[in-house]
Amino acid sequence: MSARLPPPRAADLPALIRAESARLAAACTACGACVGACPMVPALPAVAAAAPEAVAAGLRAVLRGEAQAAPEEAVAWIGACTRSGLCTAACPERLDAAFLMRLAGMRLRGALGAQEEGGPPRLPAREDPGWSARVKAFARMTLTEEEQARWL
Amino acid sequence: MALTSPPPGPGAAPDRVVFWFGCNVARHGEIVRLATRLLEAVGVAADPAGGPAYCCGSPKEANARIAGAMARRTVEAFNAAGRDTVVTWCPSCHMNMDDFMAPATEAAFAAAHISEVLHARRDRLAPLLRHPVAVRRALPHLHHGFNGRVPVNTLVPDLLRLIPGLEVVDHPCRAPGHMCSALAGVPGALAAAQRALLAAAEETGADALVTLFHSCHRETVALERGRPGLRVVNWIHLLAEAMGLPFQDDYKTWRNAPDPRQAVGPARLAAAGETAFERLVEPELRRPPPV
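Output (structure tokens, whole complex):
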């Protein structure tokens, strides 16, 4: 690829999440093909036991702004997403299902706030409070002072 | 000039790019350094940029307002750099640029993954790979994820096959996720992926596991423990070794040392700072391996 990245389609990240959630929720048929293709499902017994269509419907509900109504199995599945992307290849509607999962994960972790989602986050944030300090500590150990000054 | 198209002829001015290496690869400074040298060798002058100041926003994804502001700051910094292209290293950063960063902030550049750039210019790279490497049969450590965006599972093995005398084996083993850090959050998932990787190495007779990404490298280096016939090396290390570029994989040395604190040594410990080392670095280096 060589062309510049496409122009923005939203004013900011919250607006992008809202717009893309609505667009993808409208296109998703909750057929469950994404659930069936997911390599993480075998590690999630409750999800494996649930009907794929019901789990996918829960994913769609999150994107519709109905996170509080999504079944536990759907929440667990979204929370275990490791971004394999096999869901995208499996989607008969040719949706970027991996992106859909990412949006849902952000919303379940409270990206748009409790008021907009109608309740508290249903997944814990994956934030590492020491992340920035840890990266900088390692950088001081592996980069010269000049490299740190120029690169970081 | 399209960085992923065939390169201009010898003597042409180098393309100048930003090399966006991300944040967690700061554990492996030599990878940033060597990747920059490899880009230079194929006619791409790269200005490295990374760390929290160039964050993609994903560490704060539970708050879209904050994540978006961090991402916007990074895009604007790249716009101000005035380069046509940002060459990425980290698959998370690359996907975030496509999915969340550029769609919310005007980006005055193209983005390409380093594997795409080196692969497009492999005719320049190949003659430079003249030195023997201390690996006979290499098994690339591949994931399902990211390959749908950038075909790294083909590009990187192709590049490794340019190294004379090195056999790069094919195996259907693919770990879930886009890199190993994604697996670490799901109980048992990382251990299962590592057991599958070791089984694939045994089946293929590989004497080296070749990681593609930094988080895989830091999770995989401990597999060398108790396995004297197995080497864990990143693909950038292997290309650099074939070019005769000197380097030391310090992270692996520290992670596999009986006493990481002693292996790090007083100078680097002082650079990190005693408190930061004790609280942030040492627990990671002493963490038991998943398998």
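Chain A has ten helices and no strands.
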